[in-house]
Structure formats: structure tokens, C-alpha cells
Amino acid sequence: MARPAPPARVSSPVYRSPSGGRRPPAPSGPDPARVAGMLLLVSAAFRIVEHTLISRWVQIESSSGTVYTYAAIAAGLGLALVQGSDGARKAALWLNALGLFAGLGLALAALAIPELREALPLALLVILGGVALIGILAGTPSSGRVFACAVLFVLALAGQLAVSVWLLRGGERELRSIVTEWAAPEREWKDEKVGLRVTLPEGWVFLKPGNPVVDTVGTKVALGQQTVGALAAVYEDSDRTYLSLDDYLDQWFADRKTRLEDLKQVSRRDVTVGKAEGRQMTLGWSTESLRFEGALSAWKDGRRYFALLSFTTGGLASRAEPEIARLEKALVFDAPVATHVKEAVARVTAGCSLLSAGAVEAMSRSLPRDATTELYCRRGYEWAVRGVREMGGDAPAKMGALTSKVFGALTPGDRDRLGRYLEKVQAGAGTSIAEDRAGNDLLGRGFAALTDGEKVELRGLVEAAIELGRLSST
After folding, report:
1. pTM of the model
2. Which of 25, 284, 335, 337 has the fewest Cβ atoms nearer than 10 Å?
3. pLDDT, tens digit (0-9, with 9 covering 90-100), for 193-233
4. At 269, is the secondary structure helix, strand, or coil?
């Protein structure tokens, strides 16, 4: 008996079940739920990136929880949609419907309230993104519609970021407008008394007094940069006493902290301003929702303390950095007090063997600016004799022993002449320049007979005695 022929192959891709039943083939093209899930995952990452970028402009730490919660929900729904969950599809539809209502509410508010008019594009983009996602998930699947809605969703996300940044940069635009409005016509400023001068680099202007953007307390001059909206101010403080430049920075920070509660110090480093060594403190703060970044460079000249504050909004910090560097180079500081002290130290130490550089620098705070070398010598001997009485321990005995060696190196006649001169100085009696020169010459000859170690020790003791005598004379 012949075997039956096998059934002919069927070219149609119809699936035949074991029971003989049939079902239509799966539709070709992308799975809408999978596409929507991937878009939600992109949206979750986008929100975190957007939050990070926007934080350069505004203080938004308080909204971080909301952003990360949205990102977590969007990522969770996206993963569930990619895995084919019908419940996730329904949840995504409901959530996007709520987002549409929120976008419509924002759009209506923007149309009704002039102050919110700039938010209208953002509201329309939110609506567009919601419509696009619903278009992917709702209705009969269609490859063309899924593709078009996916493109619209991505464009809506990108548009939201662009509009958000544009809105936030409104503060920057306002800053540049204020700089232009308050610009003074001068291109150079100087204060010869304190040794400061500025010739403006291109793009910078001086701001007129009373401008609303730079603190005027202690300000010598305020400046603005018209291209990037950077601001700067030069301060002087000679009314308060500071222990050091770091102490000045500490007190400046504490004073401003009372007005800017979120003022933060980032770092400190050494800098040079003109002829002066200084300290710089980098800062960050926010005001009226704008975030600012800046630096305060402080330096001193005698008892005068100076500082240059430069700052801009966080979104422009990188662009403003070279402009601020150009301004810092244009700031010239001659350090008149420090220069005078340096000259006095070189001149007086060369003419007065017993006076150290530290002693001359300390004496310059109490002597006239045009004090002669002879006056430094005479006043130094006077203060040293007075101050040695205030010294404790064995310092007076050591100083007496070394002074005796100085006298012992002289002839009896020279010792007598030097003794009479020092007695006259100690009594505060007037001496002539010739007497001062002769007395200092005798001290120099006796001092030269000491060993190097004895010279260093005697200068140190004289310096300490001079400072005690100087302070007791004020």
C-alpha cells in the first residue's frame, strides 16, 4: 500500500496551532510600549542632567528631591514598559494626562499674567511632550505615528532645556543691562595717596556711584563687564585692626554673612597684586534665585587693607574668568608704604649697625615719612634704653654684657664721648646731626669688634627693647 504524500508547504506566515486554530501574525514595526519605555528612560536621565545644568544659574538644592523622585518614577515606568507591562502602559497614560493638565494650567496662567508671559513656550513644550507620549501608547499601533511622536517627544525635551536656560539667563541679561545703564564715561581711575590706579581693559566700564549691583560699603571704585555681566569692586579698610590678611578675609566674610545667609567659602590661596603679596578667597552665594561665583583678593600696605572682589553668575563663570583676569592685570598697586619701608630699611640698616631690619620696619610706623637716618638712630637708642627696663628674664643682663663689649673695643676717649652722647639721648636732650653721626660712628666701630653670633644676638635684643620702648612712648 502506497504512503500518503506529505502536505504541501504553505507560503503564508499563518501560525497553525496543534488544535488547528489560527491567529493573525504579529504586526511588523517597533513595539509602541518598548519605544515609550525607552523614551521615559531618556526622560529620567534628561531631568537629572537638566537639574545639574540649571544649578549653575540658580539655587535649586531644595528641589533636588522632586527631580530625583520624578527621575525614579520615569525610569521605573520605562523599564516596566520595555518589559511589556500593560499596567505600566496605563499608569504612563494617566500620568501624562495629568502632565497635560499641568501644562495647560501653566499656559493659561502665562496668558493671563504678564509677569509669567515668558513661561508660555515652556508650557507649550510640556504639552507637546505629553501629547507625543500619549500618541505612542494610545490607539491602534502605527509605525509612522510612533516614529513621529518619538521625534516630537525628544524635540520637546530639548526645547524645554533650551527655554529653561534662556529664562534663567534673564538675570544675566538684566545684569548686562544695568552695567550699560550705570556706565561712567571715564576709562582710568587712580588714587595717588594709596598708590592704586586702573586703566580699563576693553569691555569693562566704571559704574557710577549709587548703582544697584555693587555693595558701596568701603568701596573705592565699582566696575562692570558689558559682555558677560561680570562685576567687581575695590575696597579699602584703614579703620579696623587685623592680625593678618587671613584675619581680614575672615572678618569680611563674617560681615557679609549677616546679609547673605548662604554665602560659602570655597578655597584660599596666595596671590600677588601689583607689588604686594596677598591672599585670595573664592566664594559662592545666591540672591533672588540667582547663583553667583566670585573671588576676593586681599592685600595690605602698612595699616591699610585693600581687596578686589570680582564675581558673576554661575552660568557665566567660565566665560568671565579671562575677563576678570584681564581686569586683575590692569589693577596697578604701587604699595607706597611698603616701598617706603623697604627703602628706609636698606638705608638705615646700612648706617646704624645696631638696628635690624625688623627694628627699622617697626620704627617706621611711629616716625615721620621723611625721617632721616640720624633720626632713626637717635630714636632707636632712646627707645632701646627705655625698653630694656621692661624686658624680663636674663635679657637685660645679656644686653648689658654685649654693650660692655662694644664699649670695651673703643679707646678710653671714644668710650667717654659715646657715654656722654648716650646720656644726652637718654635724657631726651636735643642733639645735632653732627653729634648723631659721631655717636653712631662710635657705636658702629665697637659693634664691628663683636663676633657674628654676638652681632645677631645684640641686634635681636635691641629690636625687642626698641619695640617695648616705642610702645611705652605712644
Report:
1. 0.59
2. 25
3. 888 888 999 989 999 888 887 876 678 889 999 888 789 99
4. strand
